[in-house]
């Protein structure tokens, strides 16, 4: 008798524990108006693709990382292409890269920034410890940011190229929603870009989604930022080191870096074969102590995979560029060697692709 009772009790406890776990997952996946899991798994692919160095493949959207969800949608819905790049910019001087393109789902202009290409990601991460808050964000009293991150977007070929591409896109598509993304240092640049679009370019519908980005400014900056670009998701993964840097010093609120919201922390719970993924939507402070800050940031491998998608270039240390000679018809090089590849959104991609195809490039456009 006693045994049976224990058995029932144990079974009940088990069921409660199990359903609790499931509820936890459901609760964290889709209850927040700002966070859309499906959208995140699409956007992460753009943040991954922008690392690739073959400019021809990126411009024709035929790269190895360009074939995920967008390719499936292309086949099912018979779209010519799930995504069309209209501007690809490589700042050779500073080893930076970004693109602007038009996506069908989500129906938006996507802007993506590549992360660092330093010879050693470890060295780059170690340097992050020492980054100073050394620049006053223009027009925002007491808002301090890191000069290096700020200038990587504002004082390179990237900003003018992006602004120009957005103007061209606007002529063809009107006021479309803009989604800005990037991983690591690219995430830092994406956040400065999103803010710039709102503050200086009067864009209405701007969404920012970054993956494993470092802190970029102080609490005052974070507060301005979150008012101006409320539609922002900052995804962090497990023990990824980079979102922990530059460090947050609890005891020096005036001197410390401070993340802006809204963090979504991806982590595993359970043991052995019962491990599953949780996506925790964090509080509005930017520094939710129960999210990634609740663990130590001690992993580089957690920095390099988001939603199962490989981030980084896989060949660190190279600012290598691969470009088909035919692509030079569409490219401009400035006096400092920086490259701009532009495409008129109204011109058919087919023509461009067959041109590249003459050089033996793989092209998947019908
Ligand atoms: C989430 O994003 C996907 C992909 O863009 C979209 O199809 C879906 O409607 C979105 N869901 C919500 C609830 O907005
Ligand atoms: C901005 O860029 C120009 C040209 O590359 C350079 O001469 C200048 O020093 C940069 N300014 C800062 C503050 O980095």
TrEMBL record:
Gene3D superfamilies attached to this UniProt entry: alpha/beta hydrolase
Gene Ontology terms, MF aspect: hydrolase activity
InterPro entries given in the database record: AB_hydrolase_fold, Fungal_lipase-type, Sec_MonoDiacylglyc_Lipase
Keyword Chaperone: no
Signal sequence residues: 1-21
Residue ranges occupied by any Fungal lipase-type domain in the UniProt entry: 110-248
Pfam hit, one: Lipase_3
Record keywords, A-Z: Hydrolase, Signal
GO biological process: lipid metabolic process
Name of protein: Lipase-like
Native organism: Senna tora
């Amino acid at each position: 008798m006693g045994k049976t009772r224990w058995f029932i009790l144990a079974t009940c406890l088990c069921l409660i524990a199990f359903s609790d776990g499931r509820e936890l997952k459901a609760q964290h996946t889709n209850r927040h108006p700002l966070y859309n899991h499906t959208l995140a798994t699409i956007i992460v692919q753009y943040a991954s693709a922008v690392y690739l160095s073959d400019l021809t493949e990126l411009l024709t959207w035929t790269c190895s990382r360009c074939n995920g969800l967008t390719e499936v949608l292309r086949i099912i819905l018979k779209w010519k292409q799930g995504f069309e790049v209209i501007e690809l910019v490589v700042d050779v001087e500073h080893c930076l890269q970004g693109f602007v393109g038009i996506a069908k789902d989500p129906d938006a202009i996507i802007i993506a920034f590549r992360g660092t290409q330093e010879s050693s990601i470890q060295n780059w991460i170690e340097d992050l410890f020492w980054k100073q808050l050394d620049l006053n964000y223009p027009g925002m009293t007491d808002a301090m940011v890191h000069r290096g991150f700020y200038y990587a977007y504002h004082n390179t070929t990237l900003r003018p190229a992006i602004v120009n591409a957005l103007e061209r896109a606007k002529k063809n598509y009107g006021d479309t929603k803009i989604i800005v993304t990037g991983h690591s240092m690219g995430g830092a640049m994406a956040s400065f870009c999103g803010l710039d679009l709102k503050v200086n370019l009067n864009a209405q519908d701007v969404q920012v989604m970054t993956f494993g980005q470092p802190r970029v400014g102080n609490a005052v900056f974070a507060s301005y930022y979150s008012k101006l670009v409320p539609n922002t998701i900052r995804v962090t993964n497990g023990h990824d080191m980079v979102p922990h840097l530059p460090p947050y010093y609890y005891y020096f609120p005036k001197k410390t870096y401070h993340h802006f919201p809204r963090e979504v922390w991806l982590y595993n719970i359970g043991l052995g074969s019962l491990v599953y993924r949780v996506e925790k939507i964090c509080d509005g402070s930017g520094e939710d102590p129960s999210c990634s800050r609740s663990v130590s940031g001690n992993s580089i491998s957690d920095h390099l995979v988001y939603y199962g998608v490989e981030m980084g270039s896989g060949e660190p240390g190279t600012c290598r560029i691969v470009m088909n000679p035919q692509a030079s018809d569409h490219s401009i090089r400035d006096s400092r060697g920086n490259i701009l590849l532009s495409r008129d959104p109204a011109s058919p991609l087919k023509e461009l692709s067959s041109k590249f195809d003459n050089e033996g490039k793989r092209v998947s456009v019908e």
